[in-house]
């Protein structure tokens, strides 16, 4: 068990009431519309927002009947929406302050500086930093505080696309060893980073669980969204250089994805519901490279003649967005055996 909470707070007319347990490792995205209470929840976990109830981490009681552990005693690396750097210290002073709590090895120090490209900023005063530079320093400070839990509130909001990709990789790496609670309302971050999802609506968790179970689940926050998608977990098989295609295993099936090189890590493949079409028999004369056997689990009617089909495919969820006309023509219903077609170009 890592973070386990059962808390409530009230601010004016807004009420937050959340019960949840964070997995021991990995990125849990705290997702929800503006005003849902994401920042309030994160700040409460950090000890910056008074609340009622119970917060435990790794068996330690941070909040309960016996009292509250002060914020600076909680072993969290915290990055708030507006990076709160100390204005009287330069960048290196801010980073050293973080490292006071627990000694950081010289290697780790160098590693964080390099990952976040902080070396050129060390002697700068924090007032003159751009939004993106301040975000990198704040993330560096969070990583150098020897955290056992990382709390990040929209950490990439001020960064350009290239930096976002780099920092998402850094955060994903850190999450291999500690839990990360990550506030976002960007689907892109959910699909790239999220292993688990806490979906907050009006101050309460509307759904929580493994990312695909929530995204494809009955109360999915994205069912009607044109970008509704899931993440398939695949295994790297080989690279076909003559076709510039990566061949991946999805259970007993193979998938082909355009790639400029072999790559290494276990690929997470985002598949948007609108890029999936269905046939009743496997087409042998189709140009589509990825044709996967699947069973219809649920068909949900959407506005404007659309529907969202949830499929079980090689033990994973897949979503297909179709017209209701196609649903009726194929007589799709729970239990129907189908073949899901996904164009390789949609998986770039
Ligand atoms: N001190 C306060 N007094 C009154 N209302 C407050 C106070 N602090 C927060 N709120 C309200 O609580 C609600 C939740 O705020 P919070 O910042 O946690 O939402 P959020 O999901 O993080 O939003 P965003 O994505 O826009 O940052 C909002 O309606 C906000 O106006």
TrEMBL record:
InterPro entries for this protein: AAA+_ATPase, ABC_transporter-like_ATP-bd, ABC_transporter-like_CS, Mo/tungstate-bd_C_term_dom, ModC_ABC_ATP-bd, Molybdenum_import_ModC, Mop_domain, P-loop_NTPase
Gene Ontology molecular functions: ATP binding
UniProtKB keywords: ATP-binding, Cell inner membrane, Cell membrane, Membrane, Molybdenum, Nucleotide-binding, Translocase, Transport
Protein name: Molybdate ABC transporter ATP-binding protein
Residue ranges annotated for the ABC transporter domain, each copy included: 2-227
Domain of life: Bacteria
Organism encoding this protein: Alcanivorax xiamenensis
Annotated Mop domain residues: 285-348
